[in-house]
Amino acid sequence: MFTSAVRTLAFLGVLLFGTSILSLAQLGTEGSILGIVQDPSGGLVVGAPVTVTNTETGLAKSAITDDRGYFQVVALPPGSYSVRVAAPGFTAWEVDGLTLIAGACSPALPSAT
After folding, report:
1. What is the pTM of this model?
2. Beta strands 79-85; 93-100: pairing state
3. What pairs with residue 61 in β-bridges?
4. Burial state string for 51-83 with b = 16 or more CB within 10 A and e = fewer than 16
């Protein structure tokens, strides 16, 4: 009886340790790009479409700015990115060469003109 309980506890310990190692291995493999879109006077640009494109693979993801002009594109693999904001009534804003590393949040600071 005692050895059965010890075996069960040992098995649970190995199981918990193994799953925690697998969880840690998944942390930090992706990153995100975020920012706040403002007009030249500092006003927030709400509802602006934002496109983030990996310039190496062509992977593109989109977001829309919220009521604070904020956007965040998550679950991006590391690499080089371009960010484009094309809000109606404004000239499109684009930046190239934004390098994203694993586990990082890279800011993009668009200014709609």
Report:
1. 0.72
2. antiparallel
3. 52
4. ebbbeeeeeebebebeeebebebeebebeebbb
Domain of 60 in residue numbering reads as 31-107
pLDDT at 100 over 60: yes
In a domain, 38, yes or no: yes
AA identity, residue 57:
T
What residue ranges in 1-113 does DSSP mark as E strands?
A: 31-36, 49-54, 60-64, 70-76, 79-85, 93-100, 105-107
* Residue 4: pLDDT band with limits 50, 70, 90: very low
| Residue of 50, 58, 63, 32 lying closest to 90 (CA atoms) | 50
List CB contacts of 43: < 8 A, sequence separation 6 or more: none
**Res 55 pLDDT > 70:** yes
CATH code of the domain in which 54 resides: 2.60.40.10
